[in-house]
Write a structure and sequence with these properties.
The protein is of the alpha/beta class. The chain has one domain. The chain has 3 helices and 7 strands, in the order E-E-E-H-E-E-E-H-H-E. GO terms for molecular function: zinc ion binding.
Length: 102
């Protein structure tokens, strides 16, 4: 499975900042190409702003529960992972402008 970067990341991609049962989504930074548990982890571990992905880009979101990789459109239409069904945190949609060019 693709490695999820972050601060104290567990085996499902939850980090020190977001560790709820549904916080299993990692987002790809368009600048460094890494999947990060959250924007705060990215800010702590890198020396550049989070590069937002285009909404039509493939492979911009990763499910930490099963490793399914998807684009923004597939992710944003789902309440859970299309690969394994694990529920996603509905509050993550509030952070979409941090990760995607909306």
């Amino acid at each position: 499975m693709t490695r999820i970067l972050g601060v104290r990341v567990d085996d499902r991609g939850r980090c020190v900042h977001y560790a709820g049962p549904h916080d299993v989504v990692a987002n790809r930074c368009a600048t460094c190409d890494g999947f990060f548990a959250c924007h705060r982890c990215h800010d702590e571990l890198t020396d550049h702003p989070f590069g937002r992905m285009r909404t039509d880009a493939a492979g911009s979101v990763l499910c930490g529960a099963c490793g399914h990789v998807m684009g923004y459109r597939e992710y944003s239409r789902s309440l859970g992972c299309p690969g394994c069904g694990h529920p996603f945190n509905p509050g993550c949609s509030l952070h979409a402008p941090l990760y995607f060019e909306l």
